[in-house]
């Protein structure tokens, strides 16, 4: 790491986080990067995936996505947003009622009136979790020549969503200057081997064929417990490991930096324990 490079400060609130994500996007696109990942917790800046009910976490992501997209507002008509599936697209357009049985809250329409091009990645079926998509959507065919960029919104509910992102990359973006931004895709599941390649061979291939082309430009992952901390990055800065908790931002201290992304296992079992006092 260049010792003269200033470290990004961990955000104190979501307004700061969204602004940092926007700045990181601008810097990455200016550097010519074309496959970008943004990942941060949505229940609170101190939360981890699963702290909130799944439907609510996606609803939170939807709201943050709308704020983030102000970066492309002047070219909204040339920006195509792919939601995970056709149902989530309808939620974005029309909102949804409260569902006590599902534990989800009421959500007002976020994209009711917009110049952004709205689309979806998949049409789910009963076999989606096994990677079988009998109602397969030709996602590449819906990308238009007028599209200048693609944003894939939280494609993590079933494996077909990320497989569709891979198809979009290979068929509509890789050999062009059109970038793809993956917004809260929970790609750590793929990196960590959450999906066994024996049962999910397509995901195994995706990890080898897609992830090497990706730059994680904005990232927050919390580690809970007495020795907890945070793995944080805001491009073009380095990866930072901080001790402490975002619940008390003043307690956060940078204890380690590096230019490449460490695994979550390395942070939890090596870096954080090594620096405990």
Automatic annotation (TrEMBL):
InterPro entries noted in UniProt: DUF1995, LPA3
Pfam families noted in UniProt: DUF1995
Top-level taxonomic group: Eukaryota
DUF1995 domain mapped to chain residues: 11-268
PANTHER family assigned: PROTEIN LOW PSII ACCUMULATION 3, CHLOROPLASTIC (PTHR34051:SF1)
Protein name as it appears in the record: DUF1995 domain-containing protein
Lineage, uppermost ranks: Eukaryota, Viridiplantae, Chlorophyta, core chlorophytes, Trebouxiophyceae
